[in-house]
Amino acid sequence: MDKSTFLWGAATAPHQIEGNNVNSDWWAREGQMPGMERSGDAVDSYHRYEEDMRLLADAGLTAYRFGVEWARVEPVPGHFSRAALAHYRRMIDTARGHGLTPVITLHHFTNPRWFAEEGGWFGERAVDRFVSYVEQVTGILDDVPYVVTVNEPNMLAMMLTIERQMRKHPHRQLAEPDRGQRLTPQAARAGPGDRCRARQGAPRRPRHRAGPHRRGGRLECGQPRVRRARRRRGEAARAGAHLGGPVPGGRAG
Question: Which of 118, 115, 30, 13 is CA-nearest to residue 74?
């Protein structure tokens, strides 16, 4: 292996580590989703990035993938912050100074809040908005060898599809794309082991013995052999209790 070309590094997302990304749509969502902890200061990497990069270099890593936060670069539509762009340029220079190859992500799930209010990626001007942002950022990336346009576009597409379905059918639970099953509210609150029993609309089709199966027109989970063994054990326990003797494999008392 050619060590001069192999990159061994770490990766982060801006909203994940920078802190106080107040113009982001995710910052706004944090206050609306029950149980979600606010990001707040996070690990304050927006101010402590040099310390973070020094730790990476001391650990023997040779690359650092970090992102440019769109919400900081363009806090309002059409207004690009030269201070934010200069900040990310300093991060690139700092990475190089520590012997780290910078790998820059232009979009890592989060958007400016105003972009989300315009309809997000479903908005009429979404593509033009993103192009304008990218054109501004490329001005500081002239010597960056690796640029990631969109982080995990497959995941982003899935998230957008879920969001669109929720907006279209706000009263419904999410459907399973492969079977078209709909989770009832009871299933959404149930645990993984109980959720299978609460599904509706599951098609009748052969299943593996160890997988979910139907009983009495209802989809159930679990292994049939395990249930049969439990049933036999229960019958044996009742018989043992009647005779006053111990039951092999059964519970005492």
Answer: 115
Q: Does residue 116 register a pLDDT over 60?
A: yes
Residue closest to 72 by CA, chosen among 87, 84, 60: 84
Kind and range of the H or E element at 236? helix 224-243
Confidence band (pLDDT; 50, 70, 90) for 228? low
Residue 41 scores a pLDDT above 90:
yes
Give the strand pairing for 218-220 and 213-215: antiparallel
Q: Which of 137, 66, 135 is nearest to 95 (CA)?
A: 66
The verdict on 75 and 193 lying in the same domain is: no
* 168 to 46, 83, 163, 173: CA distances (angstroms): 37, 40, 9, 11
pTM of the predicted structure, to 2 decimals: 0.65
Same-domain pairing of 203 and 113: no
What residues make up the domain containing 33?
9-168
The distance from CA 85 to its chain's CA centroid, rounded to whole angstroms, is 27
